[in-house]
Amino acid sequence: MKPAENALILHETADFLIVNKPAGLGTVPGGWVSSEESLVELLETRYGRVWTVHRLDKGTSGVMVFARTAAAHRTLSLLFETRKVRKTYHAILIGNPPWEEHTARHPLRFDVGHSHRTVVDHGRGKQSETTIRVLQRFHGYCLIEAHPETGRTHQVRVHAYALGFPLLGDDLYGVERDSISRLQRPALHAYSLEFEYEGKPFSFTAPYPNDFVEALNKIRAG
Questions:
Q1: Is the pLDDT of residue 181 over 90?
Q2: What residue ranges define each of the domains in the chain, with the CATH number in brackets?
Q3: How far apart are CA 31 and CA 38, in angstroms?
Q4: Which residues are catalytic?
């Protein structure tokens, strides 16, 4: 598999693959630049047919699960649909919230306008819930852990923005590029997945990518 350095296989079974997705790589074919390779296409060059169970934004890094059989796809998809998969994200926020933990429940409506943004919409938005906990505080920034209970597009990013603490590097939601970290994407990493498959518990963690680590180091150094 040519992109092994970029798309790291964390775990492999006959039923599913656990992958550490790199930022900048789309999950599935399509998007504005149709000639770009996707993570699914890269995986299929080595493993043959794989099924997409869930997605991460192109700019988001971190742990994902792909099914290797139709039966596994049905089982895993049902786990996500019934909220039996615990998803943990880590992100760098601009600012320091006055709380240590908070649950955002802003209703969200997605695919709005030419930029296809997700927005808070109390009239037509779908029920959404994200629990955010502060892990570390820095001067003007913080590292947080987020647990989305629902799976709306850009949910963590929009809830953080709605609370007044947008993600570092997230220019889609009105944040200018940061001169300290120079991160070229939203500072969001899918840190872990936990689920039970056929009676056996699984837990997988994806280490931070280099650009996320470098941004943290620069922020720590001021």
A1: no
A2: 2-221 (3.30.2350.10)
A3: 10
A4: 57
